[in-house]
Every structure is written in structure tokens, then in C-alpha cells.
Amino acid sequence: MTGTPRPVRVLVLGASLRKESFNVRLAGLAARTAAAHGASVTTVDYASLAVPPLDTDLLETDGVPEGARRFGALLNETDGFILAAPEYNYSVSGVLKNLIDWTSRIRPWPFIGRHALLLSASTGAVGGVRGLWALRVPLEGLGTHVYPDMFPLADAASALTAGDDLADQGMGDRLSRIVGGFLDLTEAAHQHVPARRRGRTE
């Protein structure tokens, strides 16, 4: 007799070093939303994943730094991840790309087979969506299944309330639908992938 299926395990990360970052706040909202949909949610302080600039000489002498190894371990412990990432100069922030590059030095790649949902918050009018399109490229290249829909939040200073909810109910409903759809897809994919291919024993 098959037992009750376990909840989807999701890592939620606000990829900004600024503590009051709009993306950190959006990540917190996404974590609460995912939990409300029944997911088992893990959050992590982005600063705890700090790594030096990628240097292959350093890699040869010291190996993969602790921050990247911890990020890789967190990815391996979850079915998918929700990433709220800022846009810097129409692209991915340097610190996030650097973390991805270091983590890609782990074998096998921790990104392989993981599902990802990308969010961004910006004070601008397009919500950081250009950075999200740029972010899809390395993640998909490293074997991540990036959810087709993304959630860019424009005018974040007024779009987020003091309690870190969305001021506009329609936007709140949209975020809930996207997170729910992402979790449904991740759960369905997980149930059809043998444990040995997920890189862990159930």
C-alpha cells in the first residue's frame, strides 16, 4: 500500500546581499505562498552563500568554496527552487552569476533535473524581467527545468506593502497561480523520475 505522498521540497532564495532588498522581501512572500500550497519550504540567507570571484587557480588549490558547496547541497536536498533575483544593467547580477559558476564546478551538477521558478522585483517599470531572461540561459544550460512563466514585479516600492504582501489583489492572485502551477509541475515530474536519477535515495 502506497503511503501519503510527501510534499514537494522547495528552496527559496532572495538573491541579493541587501537585507531590505525588494527581492529578499519578494522571496519571503513566495516562501509563504509555497507553504500555503503545501510545499515543504527551505529558505537561506543569501549572504551565507558568499563566494570569492571565480578563479580556476583557487579552484585547483582550495577546491569549491564553502558557499557554493552549501548551495549545491541545498539544491540536492530539494526538488526545485524559487529564485528572486535583481536585474543589474539589463542582465544577471554579478554575485549571482558568480555563485552559479562556482556551483557548476561541483560534479554532478546540482542543477540537473531541478525545477526553478524565477521572480524579480524592481523599482522600474518592467520589474527586472530582462535579468530573468538572461538568468534562464545558464540555469537551463546546467540542466535546470525553468518554469515557463516568470513573475517580474514592477514599481516594487509601492507594489509591496509594509507587511510584504502585494498591494494589488490581482497581482497577489497571479503570484499564487504561478507558484501553484510550478509546484504542481515539480510534483508531477518528481513522481515520474526514478530516485537514482534524482541523485538521492527516497
Number of domains: 1
Instruction: Give the DSSP E fraction (strand runs of 2 or more residues).
Output: 15-25%
* Second rung of CATH, namely the architecture: 3-Layer(aba) Sandwich
From the alpha-carbon coordinates, what is the Rg to the nearest angstrom?
A: 17 Å
What is the rounded distance between the termini?
16 Å
**CATH H-tier superfamily:** Flavodoxin domain
Largest sheet: 6 strands, parallel
CATH topology type: Rossmann fold
Instruction: Give start-end ranges of low-pLDDT stretches.
Output: 195-202
Order of helices and strands: EHEHHEEEHEHEEHH
Q: Could you name the CATH class?
A: Alpha Beta
Q: Globular, elongated, flat, extended or rod-shaped: what is the shape?
A: globular
Write a brief structural summary.
The protein is an alpha/beta fold and 202 residues long.
Keywords:
disordered C terminus; Rossmann fold; 7 helices; 8 strands; single chain; alpha/beta; 202 residues; six-stranded parallel sheet; two-stranded antiparallel sheet
Description:
The longest helix is centred in the C-terminal third of the chain and has 23 residues, at about 170-190. The chain has helices at about 20-35, 55-60, 65-75, 95-105, 130-140, 155-160, 170-190; strands at about 10-15, 40-45, 80-85, 85-90, 90, 115-120, 145, 150-155. It is built from 7 helices and 8 strands, in the order βαβααβββαβαββαα. Strands 1, 2, 3, 6, 7 and 8 form a 6-stranded parallel β-sheet that branches. It has a two-stranded antiparallel ribbon with strand order 4-5. It is globular. With about 200 residues, it is an alpha/beta fold. The protein has one domain: Rossmann fold, CATH 3.40.50.
